[in-house]
């Protein structure tokens, strides 16, 4: 293949590639994609990025000559739109007589960056209470450490909280944790930061206080939290133990959490609603030392488990293992914005309420899992199946017209029926599904597509169930 072939590929491919003069960092050559991304790609490359990143891009390009290859993320202004997040990957080919410059590949990662920011926000927020999570709280504590002495860390642990879960159930326990979090946030607002570290443990970072003020603030927090909680099952009386330590130079965030934790366990020996201040002598307290080691191992495992569960819960339905409704909504919105035709399947298990009545909910959960597996293995490469909620599933079919959607819907319908899952309340005696297939044309919204799919499912139900019915949305 000759140079003309390579030139043609670069000119026609949707790849942003630039050749930069190593002496003045001016753009000597750019592919059409690069010219679109950089508004013509004329001039010095550092001048084509956002003002705040110009110096960094200049330093990055100079460093490429020493390192040979390097990478940098920057912002690129786009007329009439928000800045794009772009990864620059550069390599020094100055010694190549055919190039004699720095080759820079620009990758638009705006979408990925937004997704990463969203996931970061989820990881930094406790899903149950809405407070900062341990992952989100630690950087704030580290920032307080760097700011110098003064702030106070209070470690809080609900006394005998296991009894709440054992006597009233985990749903009641979760309700109590959310209520404690709201009370804690209300009393701390404007004075510091509150976080749920995990389980029944909370932490508060308060503004500068002396020891007496810190103890008074901790007692105020304990009094607010201790207000009885009234449930249908009865009244729950709460008490909290608090350990206090002060931010000091030379102590990192984990050191401070350890100190406040140790003081909190000392407070538990005082009695309900106890408060203790960390002192170096506590390090010699043998029982606390032993407990510290045990708790550290438990916490590390809890943290890993919580992070794994949070990352999975953000995208996966725990019942079926398929992507969850939130993932479907995000994927569907992205697919719809592209403006290219696609199809959507809405799959509904027939007479599933009757199934749960006859076979109970555990069997219903297992049937959801098996039906989800049947749908997933029936899809083609590029398709994606989701649990939509209740007994409903969805499938996104990129670049698929109605006839293709109907064919895949029929394949799914047959695959589910072949499972042979007993259902005495359904004609034929086995579990079946009704499917709405919708071709989504340009101009149709996400809501239009889902509503048309719902209508198609209802038409399939009205026609006798265990059928696939097609419709079109838009166009």
Automatic annotation (TrEMBL):
Membrane-spanning ranges: none
SMART domains reported for this sequence: GGDEF
Cross-referenced PROSITE patterns: GGDEF
Family annotation (Gene3D superfamilies): 3.30.70.270
GO molecular function annotation: diguanylate cyclase activity
Domain GGDEF: 149-280, 340-473
InterPro entries in UniProt: Diguanylate_Cyclase, GGDEF_dom, Nucleotide_cyclase, Rev_trsase/Diguanyl_cyclase
CDD domains linked: GGDEF
Protein name (record): Diguanylate cyclase (GGDEF)-like protein
Species: Saccharothrix saharensis
């Amino acid at each position: 293949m000759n140079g003309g072939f390579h030139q043609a590929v670069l000119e026609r491919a949707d790849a942003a590639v630039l050749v930069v003069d190593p002496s003045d960092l001016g753009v000597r050559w750019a592919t059409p994609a690069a010219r679109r991304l950089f508004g013509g790609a004329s001039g010095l490359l550092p001048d084509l990025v956002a003002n705040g990143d110009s110096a960094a891009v200049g330093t990055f390009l100079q460093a490429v000559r020493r390192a040979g290859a390097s990478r940098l993320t920057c912002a690129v202004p786009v007329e009439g739109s928000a800045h794009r997040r772009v990864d620059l990957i550069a390599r020094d080919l100055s010694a190549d007589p055919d190039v004699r410059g720095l080759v820079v590949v620009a990758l638009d990662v705006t979408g990925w960056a937004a997704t990463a920011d969203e996931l970061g926000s989820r990881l930094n927020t406790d899903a149950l209470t809405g407070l900062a999570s341990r992952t989100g709280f630690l950087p704030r504590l580290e920032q307080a450490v760097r700011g110098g002495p003064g702030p106070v860390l209070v470690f809080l642990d609900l006394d005998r909280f296991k009894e709440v879960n054992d006597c009233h159930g985990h749903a009641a326990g979760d309700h109590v944790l959310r209520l404690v979090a709201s009370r804690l946030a209300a009393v701390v607002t404007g004075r510091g930061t509150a976080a749920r570290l995990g389980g029944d443990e909370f932490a508060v970072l308060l503004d500068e206080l002396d020891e007496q003020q810190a103890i008074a603030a901790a007692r105020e927090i304990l009094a607010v939290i201790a207000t009885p909680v009234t449930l249908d099952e009865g009244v729950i009386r709460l008490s909290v133990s608090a350990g206090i330590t002060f931010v000091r130079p030379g102590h990192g965030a984990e050191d401070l959490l350890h100190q406040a934790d140790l003081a909190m366990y000392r407070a538990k020996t005082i009695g309900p609603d106890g408060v203790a201040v960390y002192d170096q002598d506590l390090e010699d307290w043998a029982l606390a030392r032993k407990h510290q080691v045990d708790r550290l191992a438990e916490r590390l495992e809890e943290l890993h488990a919580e992070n794994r569960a949070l990352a999975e819960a953000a995208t996966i339905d725990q019942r079926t293992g398929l992507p969850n409704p939130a993932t479907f909504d995000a994927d569907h919105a992205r697919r719809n914005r592209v403006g290219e035709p696609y199809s959507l399947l809405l799959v509904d298990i027939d007479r599933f309420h009757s199934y749960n009545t006859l076979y109970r909910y555990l069997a219903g959960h297992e049937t959801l899992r098996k039906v989800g597996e049947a749908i997933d293995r029936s899809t083609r490469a590029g398709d994606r199946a989701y649990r939509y909620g209740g007994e409903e599933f969805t499938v996104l079919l990129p670049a698929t017209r109605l006839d293709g959607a109907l064919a895949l819907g029929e394949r799914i319908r047959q695959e589910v029926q072949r499972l042979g899952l007993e259902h005495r309340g359904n004609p034929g005696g086995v579990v079946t599904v009704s499917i709405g297939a919708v071709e989504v044309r340009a101009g149709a919204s996400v809501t239009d597509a889902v509503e048309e799919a719902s209508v198609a499912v209802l038409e399939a139900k009205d026609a006798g169930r265990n059928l696939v019915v097609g419709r079109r949305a838009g166009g």
